[in-house]
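Re: the 199-residue chain
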Amino acid sequence: MKLSKRLKAIANLIPSNSNIIDIGADHALLDIYLTKEKNCQCLATDISAKCIEKANKNIQKYQVNVTTMVTDGLKNIPLHQEIIVMSGMGTYTILKILNQKITNDLIISSQNDIPYLRKALKKKGYYLYQEQIVKDKHFYVITYYKYKTGSKIKNLYNFSNDEYRNKLIKEYKLKYQNEKNLFYKFKYLHIMRQIKKGS
């Protein structure tokens, strides 16, 4: 089966034979691919029953063993050593889902405010293990975080793709110019300068 560039980049970060919890799995194509190609054990979840219904149809179509569940984030899911995947949602939704004490590996592709996400995960004890930036009509930043007590994400504002970095600088420059609140205005200016420095 063929995946989008974004999903294929996520799949490439996941080791074979892993246990996966895919939050917001939607159509579950990633889980189907991981099961077929990497012998992973996947739990595909979504808050939408319609999405899970669509996922189940795909699972039947490809004749794979993927467990599905309708739930909000990590609610009612016992955690062990699974890799948690969160893709296609915003930073604040992701952080709301992670508003509990966990140490699982995380693979995240946020739609917005990525510097803030990195800062928040740093406070939770995570460090940035791997990063891939792919362009598939839009830019997608796919990041693999690991937990380590006392760890530091040194590259909060450093991105491996210069084209994406320049795009991000322009976005924060526009936010800075349009913002009326002085607190947020200087916050955006700080982030823009840090991204330029790559620190």
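The beta strands are 19-23, 41-46, 67-70, 83-89, 106-110, 126-136, 138-147.
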